[in-house]
Amino acid sequence: MVGVISDTHGLVRPQALEALAGANIIIHAGDIGSAEVIAQLESVAPVIPIRGNNDHGEWAEKIPTIEIVEVGCQSIYVLHDVNELDLDPAAAQFAAVIAGHSHRPSVERRAGVLYVNPGSAGPRRFKLPVSVARLHVDDAGVEAELVELAV
User: Fold this and answer.
1) CB pairs under 8 A, 24+ apart, for 75-84?
2) CA gap 16, 151 in Å, rounded
């Protein structure tokens, strides 16, 4: 299982750690908030982070703004804001695109590519749910489930 989290903005909730328990890796889709967030998530599994528009400072400079994650035979494209996607993921043969930024959790398939926004696991914004996602990856493809956190 691949854990997916985004928009923590410096807050790692115990419920998020519980929901991501058992992950082989955790992808953080940006707006991390601090290096401590990554350290806390690494207590669960290795973390692959990307930098969000609110990640600033020396700790954030070494974090890439996009990442390509290989899980088994599946390729996953990770960026913070899906509106900044500058390629055709289907043509590039990505199984999934992961993005955060909007704080709105969603899972949808377009042109055979799974688009996942885990929502925000950090401070609640408006009346949006606080959530993470889990990816299930095998040779046939990638499936996702959203997990709303009871906060």
Assistant:
1) 76/2, 76/27, 76/135, 76/142, 78/27, 78/29, 78/48, 78/50, 79/29, 79/30, 79/50, 80/6, 80/29, 80/30, 80/31, 80/50, 80/51, 80/52, 80/53, 81/30, 81/52, 81/53, 82/115, 82/117
2) 10
Q: pLDDT class for 87, splitting at 50, 70, 90?
A: very high
DSSP three-state, residue 40: helix
pTM of the model: 0.97
All domains of the chain, ordered by start, with CATH?
A: 2-148 (3.60.21.10)
Helix (H) or strand (E) holding 37: helix 35-41
| CA pair distance 96, 103, nearest whole angstrom | 18
- Residues 6 or more apart whose CB falls under 8 angstroms from that of 2 comprise 23, 24, 25, 26, 27, 69, 71, 76, 134, 135, 136, 137
